[in-house]
Design goal:
The termini are far apart. The chain is α/β, with parallel strands linked by helices and 469 residues long. The chain is globular, with a radius of gyration of 22 Å. The protein has two domains: 151 residues, Rossmann fold (3-Layer(aba) Sandwich), CATH 3.40.50.280; 287 residues, pyruvate-formate lyase- activating enzyme (Alpha-Beta Horseshoe). The strands form three sheets. Strands 2-1-3-4-5-6-7 form a seven-stranded mixed β-sheet, sandwiched between helices. Strands 8-11-12-13-14-15 form a six-stranded parallel β-sheet. It is 38% helix and 16% strand. Helix 3 links the parallel strand 3 and strand 4.
Length: 469
């Protein structure tokens, strides 16, 4: 039985290997199935070429991974695919997990995997291969039945032993083909590969969809298993830097320390980073030193706000008093430091945004990201965002931080979309237009690269003239 896996096109300067599909592909291949892999981010093809590719491959099942802003793109993919094949189409990812019924109704796909996908997709493939139609027995699945009604099955039990999952099918998505770097991201060596060492996060921040996707659980791979994959990437794919893309790599200090010790024991010399953000309250000096000794050169910190009351409203459970010392300690041992901040959190005012800007500037950060709040499905803020509108009214294509899209229907803050964009741009300008930051950026990236960056949509959006008053 042949299966096709598709990563939709996302308009972005960053192209990451789709780890979720990579894990699905490896599980299917390990069970004897042939997998055709199409990643539109690095191999963008026309609708007509897509149809020809599907016809040549003749799959019995087509799996499509999707984030929420891919809803229009996926709907188009499904429509074109159904013109040339009777193959079943299954969706996976955060969007179908959080909104399975709406996603199936909108895209016209046949199935949707809810949550962790490896075992669910394997069982679905086996049902299709055996020509069974009792799909109600596949836990973790949503599907359209014979009468056209959407059915939601029982949740599937999460995989207890993450070491039992084979490594992603890296041969289908060689890291060197991807542009993982983004504007102002610090990378020491190329090529780069992202890996995950844990799944989930037990915290329930109101702006984060992880608790819904992973059901508030936290599971870890063993340090040996993690470093085995790192060695594979180095030896087989020439990778020279690793991005640890966990939601919360440092949550369990023993795990993070174990990975560091294993890297040191094997005398691996690749660089690595935690660009997605780590818990500040889990970073003591001992762990920071171990991470640096093991080759970590960059840490992102999920700070979110400079106002403690706003932060507490998000259920972040972080004391801002801890932040300065941890960032200082990371800088002193040679780490590049990033801070992530959100503008537009519930209760936000111009005063609290000003406090966030001032707090960011007071820290010894090398870079800072000021993102307008994105109301992702599965989050508390999404429920607030959509309480007076239907899901069909959401501008799915533009519901992400890079476009600054926040609808004027926001009720939980006394700011409109224009105010949020204004404050985002002001925050970026105030943080970066300081001599020490400018010199740091120029020294790290070089004048020619900065000139190239200045032509990107990111800079054009964030550095226009700001009207005063």
């Amino acid at each position: 039985m042949d299966i096709m896996l598709i990563q939709p096109y996302y308009e972005s300067p960053i192209y990451n290997p789709p780890l979720g599909l990579g894990y699905i592909a490896s599980v299917l291949e390990n069970n004897g199935y042939k997998v055709n892999f199409l990643d539109h981010s690095i191999n963008r093809i026309s609708n007509e070429d897509l149809k020809k590719f599907v016809q040549r491959s003749n799959p019995q099942l087509i799996g499509i991974s999707m984030m929420c802003r891919a809803l229009p793109e996926v709907s188009n993919l499904v429509s074109n695919i159904k013109e040339v094949t009777d193959a079943s189409i299954c969706l996976g990812g955060a969007q179908p997990t959080t909104l399975p019924e709406f996603t199936l109704r909108t895209t016209k796909a046949d199935f949707a995997v809810i949550g962790e996908g490896e075992n669910t997709i394997l069982e679905l493939v086996q049902f299709i291969e055996e020509k069974r139609d009792d799909f109600d027995k596949v836990n973790g699945l949503a599907y359209v039945d014979k009468e056209g009604k959407i059915r939601i099955n029982k949740p599937r039990e999460l995989i207890k032993n993450l070491d039992a999952i084979p490594f992603p099918a890296w041969h289908l998505m060689p890291p060197a083909k991807y542009n993982i770097t983004s504007v102002l991201t610090s990378i020491e060596r190329y090529p780069v590969a992202p890996i995950v060492t844990t799944r989930g996060c037990p915290f329930r921040c109101s702006f984060c969809g992880s608790p819904t996707v992973w059901r508030g659980t936290f599971r870890m791979r063993s340090p040996g298993n993690v470093v085995d994959e790192i060695e594979l990437l180095i030896d087989e794919y020439g990778v020279k830097e690793i991005f640890i893309s966990d939601d919360n790599f440092t949550l369990v200090k023993k795990h993070a320390m174990g990975v560091c010790e294993e890297i040191i024991k094997r005398k691996l010399t690749m660089a690595w980073a935690c660009p997605n953000g780590v818990r500040i309250d889990r970073l003591d000096s001992k762990l920071l030193r171990a991470m640096r000794e093991a080759g970590c050169h960059l840490l992102g910190f999920g700070i979110e706000s400079g106002n403690q009351e706003i932060l507490s409203r998000t259920n972040k459970k972080l004391s801002l008093e801890l932040v300065p010392e941890v960032v200082k300690n990371a800088k002193e041992i040679g780490m590049t430091t990033y801070g992530f901040f959100i503008i537009g959190l519930p209760g936000e005012t111009p005063k609290t945004i000003r406090e966030t800007i001032n707090f960011a500037k007071s820290l010894p950060l090398d870079r800072a990201w000021f993102n307008i709040l994105v109301p992702y499905p599965g989050t508390d803020v999404f429920e607030l965002f959509t309480e007076n509108m239907s899901l069909d009214e959401v501008d799915w294509k533009n519901i992400d931080a890079s476009t600054g899209m926040i609808a004027s229907r926001i009720k939980y803050i006394d700011l409109d979309a224009a105010d949020l964009v204004y404050w985002q741009r002001r925050a970026v300008r105030e943080f970066y237009f300081r001599s020490k930051i400018i010199l740091n950026v120029l020294r790290h990236f070089g004048y020619k690269n900065i000139k190239t960056m200045a032509k990107t949509t990111f800079f054009q959006n964030l550095f226009p003239k700001i009207k005063q008053g």
